[in-house]
Amino acid sequence: RRLRLSAWLRYGAIRHMSSERYSPADSLIRQASKDNELEIGEMDPSDFENDVDITKPWVVEGGCYAYCITFQLDMTLLKARLDSLYDGDVRKYTKGSKIDALHVQSKAHYGSERGHIFYFSNGATVFWGVPEEDREESKALLRRFGADRKTVGMNEDHKRHDFECQVDPSIDKAFFKDDVIELKDWNNILELLAVSYGLAQSTQLSLFETTIDGLIEKCGDVPQAIADHSIMNKSSLSVAKLKKLVAELLEVRVNINIRSDILDKPKIVWDVPDVEPIYMQCIEEVELYKRHELVNARLEIIKEMLEILNSEHQNRIGHNLEKYIIG
């Protein structure tokens, strides 16, 4: 159930009177209160509290939103920054000796609940119940602590997921249905973490897909170069450019299949078997395995084209050398 604007305005005024710190969203709320000329004396806190009854099904404002704009985050520096922003109220999840994920609760509130933000070492971030204006603050953190400068400025449009989210205490367990995530308990952090891992893996794969699209565009001249070599024994693609394309192809293949953990089940799934079903549903929903196979198939085609052209270059060099020796 969506909150009424009047409830937002009342809540903003109440928080303004308290000593709690506030977010940029709070500033917008206070400005909205001023614009709508509501007097503090007219506001009854009980009106707001009754707007969302969390014992009944309710719609999460902001839904579940995930994106990835860098291949890697410096989690140590990021945690230090989050500790200062959230007074140390930061949960960390490790894989071995390294931080694999961080969790904080957002400063924006919905009813009596707060939103959740998960940051992952693979560069992904997943938001639950966080409005768009507050997500911008996290984007700035990603750009600041992203370890891969080649991708940190890329457009996020093709590397994100945006699901509606509902909470229904009456259901037995969380599940996906028609692009909607149904949750039983808004504060079941481990369940949210499991789904977030799946979305983080998917958005990272989306980032690789975008990188491959760029590589395919760069290889657009390769078929013509092969044809030119066959007809005129001369390629329109220089050896230097060919070597550069081969190097980029190798880097992408290594990143996808060796360095990344796109297809690995996260540690939380092994440690807490109860969250495995919703994690697997998430993986199926985003078609992670199919997309990974398609990515490797596209890379294989690029590899074959470059191998053919490289072979033609080598044959030409050998032919010219033979002519030089005989001549």
From TrEMBL:
<comment type="similarity">
    <text>Belongs to the RMD1/sif2 family.</text>
</comment>
<dbReference type="GO" id="GO:0005739">
    <property type="term" value="C:mitochondrion"/>
</dbReference>
<dbReference type="Pfam" id="PF02582">
    <property type="entry name" value="DUF155"/>
</dbReference>
<dbReference type="InterPro" id="IPR051624">
    <property type="entry name" value="RMD1/Sad1-interacting"/>
</dbReference>
<dbReference type="InterPro" id="IPR003734">
    <property type="entry name" value="DUF155"/>
</dbReference>
<feature type="domain" description="DUF155">
    <location>
        <begin position="117"/>
        <end position="296"/>
    </location>
</feature>
<protein>
    <recommendedName>
        <fullName>DUF155 domain-containing protein</fullName>
    </recommendedName>
</protein>
